[in-house]
Amino acid sequence: MPGIRIIHRTCLPASEAWRRLTDWERHGAQVPLTRTIMETVPPTHVGTRFTARTGVGRITFDDPMEVVVWQPPAGTAAGRARLVKHGRAVLGWAEIEVRPLAAGGTEVRWREELRVRGLGRAFDPLVAAAARLLFARVVARLLRT
Fold it and tell me: How far is CA 101 from the centre of its chain?
């Protein structure tokens, strides 16, 4: 299962970076041809479920996810959310960590392991590169807007 790791620093306080990064509906707006469908009512908690639906017209695939760890940042303590992917096409997990920096601002760590069903290990480097590019862009845009 290919893994990716993204580290991004922002001048935003940890609480604001957390709010932006865990606004699941905003994720869909950052990924081309994707929208997020919430399956549980806010606020987010362990057990929250949502689906990222990507595609055009009838040609779509769903990436259903569930929050299995939910620890918002508090004071100087880091926040951490972990999502498990339950899809037919995409499997794996994602983890978002938000760490306040002593000098101000926040460091975001995004880790993800994913597998696209039907693609062999030979495609792992390609899947990892595409995911790294996509999620680095998503993180930057979520923290910028």
Answer: 21
